[in-house]
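Here we describe the complex-level prediction in full. Unlike the single-chain runs in Section 2.1, the two entities below were treated as one system.
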Amino acid sequence: MLKKTLIGLAAVAVVSAATTGAAYARDQIRVVGSSTVFPFSTVVAEEFGKTSKFKTPIVESTGTGGGMKLFCAGAGVQHPDITNASRRIKKSELEGCNANGVAPIEVKIGFDGIVVANTKQAKPMNLTLKQLFLALGKQVPDKSGKLVPNPYKLWSDVDPSLPKTKIEVMGPPPTSGTRDAFNELAMEGGCKTFPKLAEMKKADEKKYEAICRGVREDGAYIEGGENDNLIVQKLVANPNLIGVFGYSFLEENADKIQGGTIDGVAPDYDDISSGKYPVSRSLYFYVKKQHVGAVPGIKEYVAEFVSDKAVGPNGYAADKGLIALPDADRKAVRDKVLTWTPMTGDEVK
Amino acid sequence: MTDTGQRNDWASDEMQRRIARRYAADSRFKWYGIGAILLAMGVLVLLLGSIIVTGIPGFTQTQVRLQVSFDPEQFGGSLKGKTPEEVDAAIAAADFSGMIRTGLQSIFPDVTQRRDVRDLTDLVSSGARQKLAQIVREDPGIVGSTVEVWLPTSDDVHTIVNGSMERDVAESDRRLNDKQIAWLETLEKTDSIRGTLSSDFFTGGDSREPEMAGVWGSVVGSFWTLLVTLAVAFPLGVLAAVYLEEFAPKNRWSDLIEVNINNLAAVPSIVFGLLGLAVYLNVMHLPRSAPIVGGLTLALMTMPVIIIAARAALKAVPPSIRAGAMGLGASKVQVTFHHVLPLAMPGILTGVIIGMAHALGETAPLLMIGMVAFIVDIPGGISDAATVLPVQIYLWADSPERAFVEKTSAAIMVLLTFLILMNAVAVLLRKRFERKW
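The structure predicted for the assembly as a whole is:
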């Protein structure tokens, strides 16, 4: 009996492997990419699955870079149809894509603000980009303008007007797109305010980037989960802790945490949408031209995603924390994407 | 000689002090041990306690009582005597949101402003439409009548009602505005709000609406994945162990294999994920995100554990059994499969179950092969896209909605229940069947 069971199990394994190994046609859209776009992409997918005759698309959270790699690997049903991105496609990625016979169609869906927040039990942390850079930079200029490893322990060391509390910031890890955007927009933004460092950009761009986007590694900056609802609990438990994360977490937890102003602008919907809030970025997804029409439902899914019902200011994706594009831009995006024109390569530098 | 006499003088003060020190060291060590255990227990209780306290509301659903009239006009006339296809078509065309809106407006007749009506309907979950559709599908004869139904509320109402979101804060700081709170309080006064055990949590697939999100999709995904793992790892692992233990010559090669198997058992699981990606997806072109690939990947990870456990169990069978069977004329294969393997089976099964429990809790290798994904449909087989329980926990922990905090803990409790069950079975097998020689 024992032998039969063993042999039977092995036979099941072999047969099942053989049957599913055969080539299969796909009737379900596959989406990969950014974990920041994931909440919006999934809510559209779910609504699309409920209201259309197509199956609910499968959305994977692989990160922007990982998604690009999978997306650009080739055209054909074993490759995903759409990739989400929390930044624009890079020139090198686009070239790689084209070399593999993939022509992406770019769709901009809205904005995401990166907020600097703390618990409501403490005073709001109102900072400037310069103060943020001085508090978190790996190397910062001292009074004489010479670059030194970050000496600041308390916020009041950075600027006497700030509270006398320890610098403790919890933010996304280097693997995340949110961190890339934070480094580029907040850190570099603050770095540029020093004329000497701004000059360096022309002279030695590599060194400039290393200094302006370098985050200190002495424990003042704690790498937390990137989009992690535990961060909120940690902020509540430790009033001195400052969190860096996406706007949707602030919106969902506004009873417990508050966003500080950056350069005097509060992270609210209108100011992020208009671009006044300095630390905001655009979110995109890319559709594979070759799959449009080949995998059923792609056209309809994209149409759903760019509709006002989804990404408009009162849409259901906006309900999940997506910040809508201005009306004119949204219409332009919609008109353009429905012509299904792939990127030429001139859009990105 | 006087020397030794002095040395053996146990009664001397010097000696007594040393003895006292020794006893003190003994008892100190005992207390260190007890302290370590108490600390570990304390941490465990804290962890489980916080998960249970946060997770309990996750099993519940807040519902609102509504009078819904299934207007025949919406369905193109009565559905009595229609074929199932016609019923489905009528359901697809019906405006269930409208019926919910009418039901709410019958309670709050003075809400007429467009914006207010929107706020009012936002109290009810967007999943309520599916609930109504399901009611009609089950009983098409209901069309034309008005019935009282309990429909799920939105997650914002749920968190306010169960207190995980505070209601006494400034309007801009909560997800519901003052008007919505006032409506909610009216409903609460008339007992039209209740909390019940959420059937959606146990029977549903994933959803972006916390009140509709369920673990069933991922439980089924875990089941298919583990089935494949078991089907591959168990026979291969046991046969490998039997060969290595009973048949293989003891030489440098078998030593090398043994060392490698032991090493393999200690390889970080993400490495198996990369291997799975390279072999199953890129070379064999198996479908992405499917339990077949996840199961095969986890089988690679579990196999060394099974081989090691099975070898230990085989080694524990005394040689006299083998010698006795041989003496009666059994062949080597007969000795192994008729006598040694059955006696070793309880030990082997314990190892297998613990290996499977390990595989059940794994997420890292599944990331590489696309099982960390948002999948709504319940997988129907090993080649359908699926996710597994720990991945579901990870995805929910990453979601911004407040109500997902409790869903995360509730899903952890479900996973822990399965793990405890599996380990209990392992202990039971060992207690019942293991033989000591």
